[in-house]
Amino acid sequence: MATEATARPDLANDDIGEEARLALWRSQLEIRHVEQRAHDLFLQNLVKGTVHLSLGQEAVAAGFAVAMEEGDYTFCTYRGHAHTLARGASMSGVLGELMGRECGLLAGKGGSMHLTSVEHGAMGSYAIIGAHLPIAMGAAWSAQYRGTSQVSVCFFGDGTTNIGAFHEALNMAQIWKLPVIFVCENNLYMEYTPIGDVTAVEHPAADRASAYGMESIIVDGNDADAVYRVAQTAYAKARSGGGPSLIEAKTYRQCGHSRADPGAYRPDAEVEEWLARDPIPAYRRRLLDFGFAESAVDGIEAAVLAAVDAATDAARASPPPPPEILETEVYADGGAAWRN
Amino acid sequence: MAELTCREAVAAAIAQEMRRDPSVVFLGEDIGAAGGVFKTTVGLFEEFGPERVRDTPISEQAIIGAAMGAAMTGLRPIAELMFSDFFAVCWDLVANEIAKSRYMTNGQVFFPLVIRSANGGGARFGAQHSQAIENWAMMIPGLKVVAPSNPADIVGLLAASIRDPDPVVFFEQKSLYGTRGPVPDGEHVDTLGTARMVREGADATIVALAAMVPRAVEAADRLADEGISCQVIDLRTLVPLDTRTILSAVSDTGRLFTVEENPRLCGWGAEISSIVSEECFYDLDGPIVRITTPHIPLPSADNLEDLALPSVERIAETVRVNLG
User: Fold this and answer.
1) Contact A172, A133 (CB under 8 A)
2) What is the pTM of this model?
3) Is B241's CB within 8 Å of A339's CB?
4) Of B182, B225, B230, which Cα lies nearest the Cα of B12?
5) Do A123 and B103 touch (CB under 8 A)?
6) Residue-range domain boundaries for chain A
7) Which residue of B has its CA nearest to A137?
8) ipTM reported for the complex, 2 dp
């Protein structure tokens, strides 16, 4: 596993650089604090339905997003708040959508599990396991056909590796040498069940890579720098015509699967071990080791918190979606008419 | 006018659209050098090459997913599902993803794509390669559904489907592939959502789709010899549904028969029957009658399959008895 066991204190010779490090820090904080706010708003009954939080998994989203170029495509699952935010979608748009408000990214038509912001390259959150792997592969086919340098990145959980669409997409991506990166966020649990109990191999994604002629890659998904470096390598490969990559990022969700799940099936020692590897305080320590001023590092967090507060206020102030949109955008004429 | 078979019409339509628009790409199993298992794509690989006419593995989820991802990023893909029965293995992509995502994202993503497939019975393939599933697609908001009955309509409606900004499911009735008919010379593009009166008549309206259209016409010809005058409407498109043509026709004749290849329950004729009952009830002179395949999986033996599908004889007899 590629890990960052020791920080490199020499910022001048750092391969990641000051700007990217601060972007990784900010992105992880934005995800952490929006997710915690989503949790709070759910408890206040202001967020309905369900939410699937990425608390503890922020480094995966941040690492890939910061290494991306504008124009690249992100596809993610119902656990997609993190990836949508990481591409730059507005916090008020995300929180507003969770709350069913007019200001939501989808005007209240999609909800938590379908966050999308095409203007930011966030091409959708897909709530049926496996579906978006072929879709992301198709976007990569499109980029290849159109001759652009765009890369399509597809995030999914460990449970997805056991559904057929995963295998169909990997095979087709490889035979067509498509610029797509499949990122398995292995948080150790398929919903409520340990992934090892329901999977024939130890590493649910990485051990399947060889079946599709791909390299077996595992990265510490709680280390934003390690994720960033692995992402850079995969982007370079995709942009140079080298074809797809499959990356397994080992991480841990600090909460249950969804709001209905307290996660009580997880051993206390396991939870404690992973909480000790929380990516946020670890990254803060690393920035300080690199010589970033504590005031600057913590100032970013204060700014993020203020932005989350402002976004919360904006979402709460936003009205419900207007009833007139109920029967709009089913078809390209803007309406829902199926007859004359 | 050229005379084409239905299978030649499919290739002609795709070629017509690929020549005019480089964003049109085509993928499916055995569609390339093999020319398609029904020989509906002969010549396309040679003319447009492997970048635009892509053979795929037996991976229907990947085929339809790839079409969706390509459509939402600037291409106009045509995906072939070899048999319409195979919609069942990629129904998530069709019904949950392609059909719903425009609405769920409030219009941020959209899918100008066509899924075309060999549909329906008559070829003795048995229950898993013979279903008429146009009603499956019809019930999903967000899809358009087309099922032509002749070569000219295949060219015109497939071209219109490829140019349409919405996802279109395009059903080709496989027992019609060898049928010949005239096709207009030059570029031919028709209009989705338009039914066509293919036979005039005064006593009853028969609404049919795809392979049931020629059967309904033949039944109407026989009935005419007996002094019963029937209109036949070729629906051509289920979504959008041309209810104006149907309602106007039924108002004139006072009687409606639907001829459906699908099994009985929830066939498209039930929806039309409901619309006509609600909107021109007082123009009706008798009950609306649906002529369908029984509610069974389709059998393969010659006599059983022929018995199951609405035949010319059954259509004529049903009309005769009900008007008698």
Assistant:
1) no
2) 0.96
3) yes
4) B182
5) no
6) 16-86+125-254+266-293
7) B66
8) 0.96
